[in-house]
Amino acid sequence: SALHDLEKSAANKLTREIFFLFRPMLFRACTLKVRTHTLSQAYDIYTLSRSVNARREWQVCHYCDSNIFKCSCLWMESLGIPCDHIVAVLKHVELTDIPDSRVLDRWSKNAHSKVRAFAKKSPFCWDSTITCHN
C-alpha cells in the first residue's frame, strides 16, 4: 500500500529516533480525508478533515515545481517532520516516497556523515562529535 511505501521511505531517510516520532503520522493519516482540491498555476491546495462535517480543517499546499508540501498546522515548520495532514495528501496523490524537501538535513540518516566530513575539513574538531586521529 502507499502508506507502507511511505513508511519504508521514511525508515530509509530518517534517523531511528525521528522515524519513531514520525511513525504515528502514518496511522493518523488514515483518519483524514481530502475534502476539496483546488488547482492554481503555482500550487494545489488540499483541504482535509477527519469527518464530513468536522469543524477543524487543514490546508496542505503542494508546490508542484519544487515538490514542497506545506500545511496550515505548521507542524513541519516547528518540528521538522511531516504532519499527518501532509502524509494524507502524499497518500492521496499516490506518492510512495517522502520528498527530500520534507526531510530536514538534521533528521536525515546522512546528517552524521555530513558533520563528520565538515569536521575533517575544518581546522578544529569537537571531541564529543568526532574522534581526531593525528
Topology of this protein?
Layout: H1 2-13, H2 16-29, E1 33-39, E2 44-49, E3 58-63, E4 68-71, H3 75-79, H4 84-92, H5 111-121
Antiparallel strand pairs: 1-2, 2-3, 3-4
Keywords:
134 residues; alpha+beta; four-stranded antiparallel sheet; 5 helices; 17% strand; globular; disordered C terminus
Question: Please, could you describe this protein's structure?
Answer:
The chain has 134 residues and is α+β, with helices and mostly antiparallel strands. It is built from five helices and four strands; from the N terminus they run H-H-E-E-E-E-H-H-H. The protein has helices at residues 2-13, 16-29, 75-79, 84-92, 111-121; strands at 33-39, 44-49, 58-63, 68-71. The protein has a four-stranded antiparallel β-sheet with strand order 1-2-3-4. A hairpin with a 4-residue loop joins strand 3 (58-63) and strand 4 (68-71). The longest helix has 14 residues, at 16-29. It is globular and about 55 Å long. The termini are far apart. 23% of the residues are buried. Residues 126-132 have low confidence and may be disordered.
Short description, anyone?
With 134 residues, the protein is an alpha+beta fold.
SSE topology string: HHEEEEHHH
Biggest sheet features: 4 strands, antiparallel
Question: For the largest beta sheet, what order do the strands appear in spatially?
Answer: 1-2-3-4
Decide which structural class fits the backbone: alpha+beta
Low-confidence stretches: 126-132
Average the pLDDT over all residues and give the rounded result.
80
> What's the tally of helices?
5
The total strand number stands at 4
**How far apart, in Å, are the first and last alpha carbons?**
50 Å
User: What characteristic shape results from the CA principal axes?
Assistant: globular
Q: What Rg is obtained from the alpha carbons, in whole angstroms?
A: 18 Å
Give the proportion of residues in helices: 25-40%
* Share of β-strand residues: 15-25%
